[in-house]
Structure formats: C-alpha cells, structure tokens
Design brief:
single chain; mainly alpha; 6 helices; elongated
C-alpha cells in the first residue's frame, strides 16, 4: 500500500509541476498567434513581425511567470488557512518552479511561432504559425482531457477553436490598424 501511495504522490507532484508549463504554453500560443498574425496583417514586412513577436514573447513570459507565481502564492495562503480540509498546500519551491516552467514554456512557444517569419515569406509564415499553434492547442486539449477523463477530441477542438478565434480577431484588428496607419 505504501508503494501505491508513493507512486500516486509522485504523479501528483509531476502534475503540480506541469501547471506552470501548461499555463505558459496555452497563453504563449494564444498571445504569440495574436501578436504575429495581427502584426503580419498590418504590414507586409517580416521585420516588425519578428520584433513584435520576440519582444512580446519576452514580456509575455515574464508576465506569465510572475503572475503565476503571485497567483500560486495567494492560493498557498488560502490553502494554509484551510489546512484542516486535508488539501495539498503549494510549497514555495512549487511556486518558484511553476513560475519558471511558465516562463520557459512561453519563450519556447513564442520561438516556434515566430521562427517562420524569419525563415519563409510572410504570407506563408502566417499560415505556418496558425497551423502550428492550432496543432499545439489541439494536443494540449487532448492531453488535458485525458487527465480529466473528458472527451479528448472535443477538448482538442475547443482549445483549437479558441486559439484560432483569437488569431482571426487579431488578424482583423491588424488589417484595420495597418490600413489606418498606412502600413499596407
């Protein structure tokens, strides 16, 4: 029985560490797609898209990691207050590791979604980034669904739809602003 409890504890520890990674990935995909797709719609020059994507990625990564750390620290305070319920209390180390995982995941996602704008023509880069982002969100949705014993196809579709919706809105805003500012 002790071995089973130890294994269950190991799995739960791993899942707690993935919180920051999952948050950084999801937010990274949605923000990166919005930034690069919107910027690409505003201009036909890939240089501003790269600049916006890279600077935005660093800013978003810091925002995610610091925000996640603060959120988990606040949650830790509530958990400590309600300790008698027997729930897990986040440790300071978990909070720090999740914040770091969120930062790294966001930076990696931005790198993947911005890279096409440095490598291929801008029109093709838009489609490549969209496809990569939607695939990443679908895989994340299916993974989360498996963890929570829900329908993987439905959650993959939901995550993909939300990311694509954000990209489309950003594209339309970029087109509008690009026209207003005379960038196209």
């Amino acid at each position: 029985m002790t071995k089973i409890n130890a294994k269950f504890g190991d799995v739960m520890d791993l899942l707690r560490q993935l919180e920051g990674t999952a948050f950084g990935m999801a937010d990274g995909v949605i923000c990166a797609l919005g930034m690069v797709i919107g910027a690409a719609a505003a201009t036909s020059d890939p240089k501003p898209v790269l600049l916006i994507g890279l600077v935005g990625g660093v800013a978003d990564a810091f925002g995610n990691s610091i925000g996640f750390y603060i959120s988990q620290s606040a949650e830790r305070g509530v958990q400590k207050h309600d300790l008698e319920k027997g729930e897990h209390v986040h440790t300071r180390l978990e909070n720090i590791l999740n914040g770091a995982a969120s930062f790294i995941a966001t930076i990696l996602i931005f790198g993947v979604l911005v890279a096409p704008f440095a490598l291929i023509p801008i029109d093709m880069a838009v489609w490549t980034s969209c496809i990569l982002g939607v695939v990443m969100l679908a895989l994340m949705g299916a993974y989360v669904a498996n963890l929570s014993k829900e329908n993987p196809a439905m959650m993959a579709f939901e995550y993909s739809f939300l990311g694509l919706f954000g990209a489309i809105v950003s594209y339309l805003v970029g087109l509008w602003l690009g026209g207003m500012l005379g960038l196209r």
